[in-house]
Design a protein that fits this description.
Radius of gyration: 21 Å
Strand content: under 5%
Structural class: mainly alpha
Order of helices and strands: HHHHEEHHH
Number of strands: 2
Shape: elongated
Largest sheet: 2 strands, antiparallel
Helix content: over 70%
Length: 235
């Protein structure tokens, strides 16, 4: 299983990073380019998720009616909601899929930043990727990508707040207290968690998080302008 993980994720990401580093000479910029490439690969999945969320928003009043009608019978409420989802061809979990797909990539990047850029891992390079004499871990000669950085962690948290605020501040009010509570947690709790997590990991991951969140914010803004529907998360 570990060998399969290395072949599918760790080794390709390591080779792509080193190849870009050989071309550009800055590992931080290479991380930003890799992140943007990953986002474009996941774009069809992310757009599908956003359209599913838009459909859910349009049907929210009907779902609220069902929840109110069967509020004293949770089992019946669940059955009616599942029936409603099936009739309208909705998968309420589809919005989580892009995030779940990204998790193995984040773990692989963490492995690359922790040990992949050391000389001992250069044997994993493909034959067509030149082995650099050494890799300078600095972004623009200022910030090391292999050690934690508090400023980058705070920026990642702030951008997470902006993205969450764009979604939940404009969502229509719903009778679902759980959904409202989840929205508040995503807006205020997740940015704090992002800072604490990012400040304990190599700064390369914070750069990945900053880049991927900026991409998501731009994607969300464009979709909102295009469709006129706000409150949709770009995962």
């Amino acid at each position: 299983m570990i060998q399969l993980y290395n072949i599918i994720l760790f080794q390709p990401l390591l080779n792509l990073l080193v190849w870009l580093y050989n071309m550009i000479g800055d590992i931080g910029v290479a991380i930003i380019i890799v992140t943007i490439l990953i986002r474009f690969v996941l774009l069809p999945l992310s757009l599908k998720s956003m359209k599913s969320q838009q459909s859910l928003q349009g049907l929210q009043p009907k779902m609220d009616e069902i929840k109110n009608k069967f509020k004293d019978d949770k089992q019946k409420q669940s059955e009616e909601l599942m029936k409603f989802y099936k009739e309208n061809k909705i998968n309420p979990m589809s919005s989580c899929l892009p995030l779940l797909v990204q998790l193995p990539i984040i773990f692989a990047l963490y492995g690359v930043f922790q040990k992949g850029l050391q000389n001992s891992s250069m044997d994993l390079l493909y034959s067509f990727v030149s082995k650099p004499e050494s890799i300078n871990p600095m972004l623009f000669g200022l910030v090391s990508m292999t050690t934690p950085n508090l400023i980058l962690a705070i920026i990642a948290g702030l951008l997470q707040f902006v993205q969450s605020w764009m979604v939940f501040s404009k969502q229509k009010k719903t009778s679902d207290k759980m959904a409202g509570m989840l929205g508040k947690q995503m807006t205020y709790f997740m940015p704090v968690m992002t800072v604490f997590i990012a400040m304990s990991l190599p700064a390369g991951l914070a750069i990945y998080w900053i880049t991927t969140t900026l991409f998501a914010i731009a994607q969300q803004y464009i979709m909102t302008k295009k469709t006129g529907v706000s409150g949709v998360t770009a995962a």
